[in-house]
Amino acid sequence: MFERFTKDARAVVKGAFEHAEAGGARVVDAEHLLLALLDREGSRASFALSALGLAERREGVRRALAQAQRHAGLTRADADALAGLGIDVSEIVARVEEAHGVGAMSGERRGWGRRPGRRPGFGRGAKDVLERSLRVALARGDRHIGDEHLLLALTALPGVSGEVLADVGVTYASVTRVLYGVGVG
């Protein structure tokens, strides 16, 4: 599949590995792909994100991703569902962090589960994004997978990345409209 990736899409994947390694992550996940997309300039995805006004909200997106990581990767919908059962995720996070330190629930312990010198592998979330980006490209009749297809896949899949993007108005429909000048469908 990677032979179909454009230079920009390959740069996003490389950037995702860099973000994962910098954070001591065992796996590259969807959030790392989103962080790498936020770093890009001069590509189709960066054009779409800028056109949708994300340029001035990038740090807010980064903070939202970090907050979700502190909450063990739970989406707001997950936290709301747990609240319906009487479970306050924020309270649990506060208690765990009080006992074990800030970020204890993120699951990211430096070097834990990785041998020195080995890169992290792809987690389920990143694999889902990569697979969906291929489907998005094929559905559009594109022969290659660009970073715009990665962005569209992130907006189409459930999870923290899609939720964070939707919160700032970056949805599958809005990205499609910016990139292709049409609505979804």
TrEMBL record:
Q: Which UniProt keywords apply?
A: Repeat
InterPro entries reported in the protein's UniProt record: Clp_N_dom_sf, Clp_R_N
In terms of superkingdom, the source organism counts as Bacteria
Give start and end of each Clp R domain.
2-185
Q: Does the keyword Amino-acid biosynthesis apply?
A: no
Pfam families recorded for this chain?
A: Clp_N (PF02861)
Q: What's the protein name?
A: Peptidase
